[in-house]
Structures are given as structure tokens and as C-alpha cells.
Amino acid sequence: MGFLAKTFTWWNGATVGTALFTRSKGREVGRDDSGNIYYQHKKDPARRWVIYDGNNDGSRVPPAWQAWLRGTIDDLPEKSLPPVRTFQQKPEPNLTGTMAAFRPDGALGSGKVRPLSTGDYQPWTPD
């Protein structure tokens, strides 16, 4: 990513101002599997933030780190929460607006036809 994109955009990673603030006031406390980096203010531990690896999208933060960011848990997720169970699925980011988004039958782009109504439906007709 170029210097201008880093300087003037906030939606694809940290801007220069955020990077400078993070370097001077924050300390890194952890990383998740997606490459997001989590910080805590050096003097005020209640101030917490994330620097995304890629697009700034809160749905890309795993639930455990979401709990830490919001102050629901005080300690880091690996210390506060029980280990992940075998039946738990990995969280997925919000796919709205992407080709992987859910499209019900009959929606544009789904390639499927909406099922017919069941017969108990009476359409309105003007008198």
C-alpha cells in the first residue's frame, strides 16, 4: 500500500496518525489468527484498540478479543477464557456485499428460483 493511501484512508489499516499514537502511547498485548494486533494504553490500561491486518471491519475480530476490547474480561483471552472446544466453529467475518454473502432463492445473483407460494396466499387486487 502506498504512502498516500496510508496517509489519507482509514478503512485499510492504520493511518499515519494512528500508527504514531500507537507507537508512542500503546503497548502490544497480542495478535489473533487473522493478523490483527491488539494494544493497550501504557498509562490507562482501560483504553484498548486493534490495528487491523487489512480492511477495518469489526466483524473480523474474534469473539474472545471482542470481549477483551470491550472490557468484558480484564485479562487477555488466553488467560481469562476456557480453551476452545472441538465442536466450536471458527468465527467468520461479515460477508455482506461480497460474492460469498448469503442470497436466498429468488434473489438477484443467487441463480435460483423462489419457491411458489403455498396456496394460502391471496394477492390483493384493487376493486
From TrEMBL:
Q: Sorted alphabetically, which keywords does the UniProt record give?
A: Ubiquinone
Task: Name the residue ranges with Polar residues bias.
Answer: 86-97
Stretches for region Disordered: 79-127
Query: What InterPro entries does UniProt report for this protein, alphabetically?
Result: NDUFA12 (IPR007763)
Supply the NCBIfam families for this chain: PRK08183.1 (NF006040)
What organism is listed for this UniProt entry? Sphingomonas piscis
What are the BP-aspect GO terms? Answer: response to oxidative stress
> What highest taxon heads this organism's lineage?
Bacteria
Any Gene Ontology CC annotation: respiratory chain complex I
Query: What is the protein's given name?
Result: NADH:ubiquinone oxidoreductase subunit NDUFA12
